[in-house]
Design brief:
InterPro entries: LemA-like_dom_sf (IPR023353), MamQ_LemA (IPR007156). By secondary structure, this protein is an all-alpha fold. About 80% of the residues lie in helices and about 0% in strands.
Length: about 190
């Protein structure tokens, strides 16, 4: 009788441990998805700023039409990639597309701001200065949100790849961090006042 009770106790302990491990994996998965939503909020903020920046510069940069169109196209591409990634945060293909689109956007924004520096009246425009300052602030927020997301992804992946999580991780696919893939994105957007 006592052997049966001991075995029953071990089964109950194993079931409690399995439930704890499963709940831990679910909690970490939800944490990285929540962290991605913070990135999404900041990216949307930046995408909303860019048309205002382009509209402000349009009057001054009449001969830089290609630059303005490149900024708008890159912004639209990045916004589409962000929507796809937000639908399934952590998906390797979606995260790679988002990283690539964000890299392209950072590159054209850097080029746009470099061109804008050649126009003193535009540089002195108060609206342009305010938008550039807001853009810089948003870039910092994106960097912090990306770091929080990558930390949450690392905690999730560690939990699912280490023992005992690996025993129950079959239904939990690995998540992909939001890494910088384009060298231009590693450089901060240059803003001069």
């Amino acid at each position: 009788m006592s052997v049966v009770l001991v075995l029953l106790g071990l089964v109950v302990l194993a079931a409690i441990a399995a439930v704890g491990i499963y709940n831990g994996l679910v909690t970490r998965r939800n944490a990285y998805k929540n962290a991605f939503s913070q990135i999404d909020v900041q990216l949307k903020r930046r995408y909303d700023l860019i048309p205002n920046l382009v509209e402000t510069a349009k009057g001054y940069l009449k001969h830089e039409r290609e630059t303005l169109e490149a900024v708008v196209a890159a912004r639209n591409g990045a916004a589409a990639a962000a929507r796809a990634a937000a639908a399934n945060p952590g998906d390797p293909a979606a995260m790679a597309a988002l990283s690539g689109a964000e890299g392209a956007l950072a590159g054209v924004l850097t080029r746009f701001l470099a061109v804008a520096e050649a126009y003193p009246d535009l540089k002195a425009n108060q609206n342009m200065l305010a938008l550039q300052e807001e853009l810089t602030s948003t870039e910092n927020r994106i960097a912090f949100a990306r770091q929080a997301y990558n930390d949450a992804v690392m905690a999730y992946n560690n939990a699912r790849e280490t023992f005992p999580g690996v025993l129950l991780a079959g239904g939990f696919p690995p998540a992909t961090a939001f890494e910088v893939q384009v060298a231009a994105e590693r450089e901060p957007v240059r803003v001069q006042f």
